Amino acid sequence: MTTLKATAPPVGPDPSAAFADATASESALRRFLHGLPGVDQVGAEQRAAALGTRSIKTTAKAFALDLAIRMVDLTTLEGMDTHGKVKALCAKAMHPDPTDPGCPSTAAVCVYPDMVATAKKALGSSEVHVAAVATAFPSGRAALDIKLADTADAVEAGADEIDMVIDRGAFLSGRYLEVFEEILAVRAACARPDGGHAHLKVIFETGELQTYDNVRRASWLAMMAGAHFIKTSTGKVQPAATLPVTMIMLEAVRDFREATGQMVGVKPAGGIRHSKDAIKYLVTVNEIAGEDWLDPDWFRFGASTLLNDLLMQRSRMRTGHYSGPDYVTLD
Prior knowledge:
about 10% strand; globular; 8 strands; about 325 residues; TIM Barrel; alpha/beta
């Protein structure tokens, strides 16, 4: 199989030092976050809707489908997950379409921490990463020492990436410094004994944040604390990922790079099931953040069913007709 996936970017410096004044106290952090430009809800939704109507040419669509496949974090996060299911998912991540050696692999497989070792072994020397949800996912309702142990266990088992959830109760109560310090602590727990470092994705659960202004504030808070990715949702709360929310997060990472010189990735997750929707997100990435983010290192889809539709559409473009329902596996 032709491997089109890029290797993971370096961890990079911790940006928290650059914001030492803004994070020196609860009041300072509140002033900074509430001093960010407000989001025009109507304007944001209208712009996202307009971006969603953009059409692309056939050749661009073929590229977009392959790119979207490379950006998928193929996910199983169910209480009934088994080692056999995770192994099957890993096989699919490495070879999404066994009938087409040119089909790229996905970016990662995302599992619970107790399945990391199974996924790591199944993926072998492939470039597909293992992402693990941690910090009492999906609620985040646990003491900090338990969250850190959860993270450390996943990293020790071989996780390349950690998807943590913020304490939404603390954030919505205005305890921003508590959330900031928790992200810092989890980032530190992502360190490996060999000197390496698992990448940290910070999940906001935007369906619970109530306002677009809160999405912007959470984005900056996480980036200031050293997040490598900011992520919309756990997939367990509705609404999950939406185009307007993702657009606001893309604006935040764009503005953060302008302010600091550092890039941060974005991961919409939950509810993205169809190729046409994935392409809308890619158009939005290009228009809002820029071409640099059109790479699996900087943009991901958290999904369990999206891959099947991408494969069906890819097969149609390759063969000229739709394949039967048994063309793809049901995960």
